[in-house]
């Protein structure tokens, strides 16, 4: 995307594979602020970059409020030590959550496999 390129609402939805409802919600909660021309919305590279960060945060399992804080840190003119430490803290906390979920999923798979194998044996 060139610096002067902007995406329409429909293009933004397609680019990030999100529903119009999702995109409107992100605007409603002020994670995104597109340019408006009447009823049309246009997303400049800054908003596209913010959406990339939002999608990355969602993929990592962060809440929308945590993503807002993350975006606020990136909005500042410079990142200071406290901001970088906050990012590390967010990441460490979320990695712990993801590790816990992974362990639960692995246990469930193991239990389901044992059940399946027992039923197959009984056939």
Structure description:
This is MerR family transcriptional regulator. Residues 81-122 form a coiled coil. Keywords: Coiled coil, DNA-binding, Repressor, Transcription, Transcription regulation. Pfam families: MerR_1 (PF13411). Residues 17-73 form the HTH merR-type domain. The chain is mostly helical. It folds into two domains: 1-62, Multidrug-efflux Transporter Regulator, Chain: A, Domain 2 (Orthogonal Bundle); 76-122. 70% of the residues lie in helices and 7% in strands. The chain is built from five helices and three strands. The protein has helices at residues 9-16, 20-28, 45-59, 64-75, 81-122, and strands at residues 7-8, 35-37, 40-43. It has a three-stranded antiparallel beta sheet. Helix 3 (45-59) crosses helix 4. The model has no long low-confidence stretch (mean pLDDT 89).
SSE topology:
Elements: E1 7-8, H1 9-16, H2 20-28, E2 35-37, E3 40-43, H3 45-59, H4 64-75, H5 81-122
Antiparallel strand pairs: 1-3, 2-3
Helix pairs in contact: 3-4
Domain HTH merR-type: 17-73
Keywords: Coiled coil, DNA-binding, Repressor, Transcription, Transcription regulation
InterPro entries: DNA-bd_dom_put_sf, MerR-type_HTH_dom, MerR_fam
């Amino acid at each position: 995307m060139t610096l002067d390129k902007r995406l329409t609402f429909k293009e933004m939805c397609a680019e990030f594979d999100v529903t119009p409802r999702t995109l409107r919600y992100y605007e409603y909660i002020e994670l995104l602020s597109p340019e408006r021309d009447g009823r049309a919305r246009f997303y400049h590279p800054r908003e596209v970059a913010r959406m990339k960060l939002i999608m990355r945060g969602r993929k990592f399992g962060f809440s929308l409020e945590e993503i807002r804080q993350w975006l606020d840190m990136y909005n500042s003119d410079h990142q200071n030590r406290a901001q970088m430490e906050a990012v590390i803290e967010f990441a460490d906390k979320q990695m712990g959550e993801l590790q816990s979920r992974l362990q639960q999923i692995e246990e469930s798979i193991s239990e389901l496999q044992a059940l399946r194998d027992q039923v197959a044996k009984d056939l």
